[in-house]
């Protein structure tokens, strides 16, 4: 096929199986799902899509396979899996993932049902590829699956650079060329070759900085939590099935929210960036372990209790409890003195980044601007928080 001009990797050339997959409706749908969903309410130029990200991941997978010497049918399967790795995402990507998981019990990496029949299955089978084995690679299973979904996967290598490029935030600009050349398989594990502790650290630092600056920006968190609650009410108030919901585009979801009486106001707020404000913004040490560990049902119960305490409608209180902070990249394997070691056992930098991660952690309770004072006081009482201020500036 003709090379595709990419904003990050310049000219991208894809194999025949990828060319045929690109023409299917499930792949074309990704043109209409933004990579950074509500982050674009903070960074106006962050309008890139999961379609272009998928092209970038397929390109980096191809380069990684060349460096690793993986050829033939095995390489063909990985190339297909890399291109299809995001086909399971719902509208607004990760922002609706929790809704889909609770309704269908399915993570976006679990794409077996999407590849089992229809256009994608037909293309894969025409290229002598087993859809079940490709789906397993998307889920990160097996040795080669680590290239698609793992601590050193090409997914992460692409989205860090791409998200940095489109937001204008430089922290995600990693040396993915060095990372690709350093990849090795050792004892069935994907590792970085001798002399690459700093290379592994750079990936960790980039992820930590992008997390604090871009992925967990408070405005995006407010909008994302509002969108999640609206999506739940939409499914409860209409005959829209979770399966159909999962296959919507961003624009289709927003339109469905605007057409539903129960969610129309929230949809208008999201569309016009008229977001709820922070009623409470609590640091790690101010929040009990029980609240941090809350599941979805507990969070909804807290929301109802806070609303009742504040004397406001239930839908005007949104609790954003991120859960205990984690850094999966810290378990990256690196060869040191001929031994495979975890990065967190080898690098003192990891401990500092983990401490920074906890320092940056925040629990948020959001409400319409006129209700933030009452909701903030109620949240302190219900959640057992001790706070001196209620920050409300969300621009």
Topology:
Elements: E1 4-6, E2 10-12, H1 16-22, H2 25-29, H3 50-68, H4 72-84, H5 97-104, H6 112-116, H7 118-126, H8 131-138, H9 142-148, H10 154-167, H11 176-182, E3 183-186, E4 189-192, H12 197-215, H13 218-237, H14 242-246, H15 250-259, H16 264-271, E5 277-283, H17 289-292, H18 296-310, E6 318-320, E7 333-336, E8 339-342, H19 343-346, H20 348-360, E9 362-367, H21 372-383
Antiparallel strand pairs: 1-2, 3-4, 5-9, 6-9, 7-8
Summarize the structure.
With about 400 residues, this protein is mainly α. The chain is built from 21 helices and 9 strands.
The run of helices and strands is EEHHHHHHHHHHHEEHHHHHEHHEEEHHEH
CATH superfamily descriptor of the largest domain: Hypothetical protein af1432
Rg value = 22 Å
General form: globular
Going by CATH, the architecture of the largest domain would be: Orthogonal Bundle
CATH topology of the largest domain: Hypothetical protein af1432
What is the beta-strand fraction?
A: 5-15%
What's the CATH first level of the largest domain? Answer: Mainly Alpha
Mean pLDDT, all residues: 94
Strand order of the biggest β-sheet: 5-9-6
**Main pleated-sheet profile:** 3 strands, antiparallel
How many individual helices? 21
Oligomer: single chain
Count of DSSP strands: 9
Helix content: 40-55%
Which spans of ≥5 residues are poorly predicted at pLDDT below 50? 389-395
Tell me the span between the first and last alpha carbons: 45 Å
Describe the structure.
- The chain is mainly α and 395 residues long.
- The chain folds into three domains: 4-168, Orthogonal Bundle (Hypothetical protein af1432), CATH 1.10.3210; 182-215 and 326-360, no CATH class; 276-325 and 361-395.
- Helix content is 54%, strand content 10%.
- It has helices spanning 16-22, 25-29, 50-68, 72-84, 97-104, 112-116, 118-126, 131-138, 142-148, 154-167, 176-182, 197-215, 218-237, 242-246, 250-259, 264-271, 289-292, 296-310, 343-346, 348-360, 372-383; strands at residues 4-6, 10-12, 183-186, 189-192, 277-283, 318-320, 333-336, 339-342, 362-367.
- Strands 5-9-6 form a three-stranded antiparallel sheet, with helices on both faces.
- A hairpin with a 2-residue loop joins strand 7 and strand 8 (339-342).
- Helix 3 packs antiparallel against helix 4 (72-84), helix 3 (50-68) crosses helix 10 (154-167) and helix 15 packs across helix 16 (264-271).
- The longest helix is centred in the middle third of the chain and has 20 residues, at 218-237.
- The chain is globular.
- The model is unreliable at 389-395 (pLDDT under 50).
